[in-house]
Specification:
- The protein is α+β, with helices and mostly antiparallel strands.
- The chain is built from eleven helices and 14 strands.
- The protein folds into four domains: 44 residues, no CATH class; 104 residues, PAS domain (Beta-Lactamase, 2-Layer Sandwich); 67 residues; 157 residues, 2-Layer Sandwich (Heat Shock Protein 90), CATH 3.30.565.10.
- The longest helix is centred in the middle third of the chain and has 47 residues.
- The chain starts with a strand and ends with a helix.
Length: 392
Amino acid sequence: MSATISPIYERTGRVFLCLILTKDLTEYYETRRLVELQNKVIAERERLLLDITENITEMISLFDLKLNKFLYISPSYEKFFNINIETLYEKPEIILENCHPEDLPNVVEFFCKPTNGTKELEYRVLKNKSGEPGWMTTKVTPIADEYGTINRWINISRDITELKKREQMIRKWDKLSAVGQLAAGIAHEVRNPLTSVKGFMQLLAQETNNKYTDIILSELERIEFIMNEFLILAKPHQDVQMKLSNINEVLSEVVVFMKPEALLYSVDIHQDFDKNLPFVQCEPKQIKQVIINLIKNAIDAMPSGGNIYLTTSITSDSQVAIEVRDEGAGMPIERLERLGEPFYSNKEKGTGLGLMMCYKIIENHEGTIHFTSREGDGTTARVLLPSAYNLS
């Protein structure tokens, strides 16, 4: 309650009486308390919303169709595109510059075409947050005002590069499975008569001095080599003895084994291993086989010599990463995407089966293998294996 006292004076100036006005302030203070509480709730919600939008990996933006500008852009855009947020507010069209040229027309149509319902688009980008070509998906949800007029869009975008890589790996593994089944069915049937033909040709070569017999024997040996690779590929892996292993030690043994061959081709192998690497449940001989194959490919990619960088690290999700990087000529994306296909190889007489074996081994270890390359800038093979932490 509040009280106001007003004195009333006589002509002589003496206080004659006092006028006291009182007012019940209960309702006023209750209303003010409710308003303060409501403002506090609103501030907490705004802070919570800000915490969410600033820390989620998805990119969220609010676009005003009438003003033709963004009203809000989440900080994740800046992390993904490596562009200042203020620049995005001023020039929103700059995002389109990162779209793959082949997908750009579809992206422009997607954002410019009016919609009354939610729509979604997958498209390629020239660079993701890792600086590599990647994939994005954007979902647009229209927002209508009280009159039913759509005047704003909420855009939610996310990086699906890893998802696309996994899909590609699954397709490759399906091919590997098909080749393995085929090899299991025909390898022995072909190998036996092949051995007989080779034996008779060797006898014939001893009895005659025909220049073509050496060529025939050479080609038979090549067929035999391919069939042996098929047999290795078709071998069941259920009996493989997995054990806790220090990947750094496994790779160190590979380097010792490969150094003489590398020096022969003027190639230096540099090691940079994470000393705090967790153990991996693996079959060391098979992991060695994979890394040896990758190093051999790296050596072949540098006929004039160069450097190979072999590194290990731990990823944010506690996987063990192994990278083999060369300084070769690199390769275009269309060739890169075909790596691991049967009988596709960058080598003149390569079969592609060695790389298929690498994919198969890593698949059996519940890991992944991925290649990145740029023409003139070498190739990097990245193998990810689950650490013992993840398996437990």
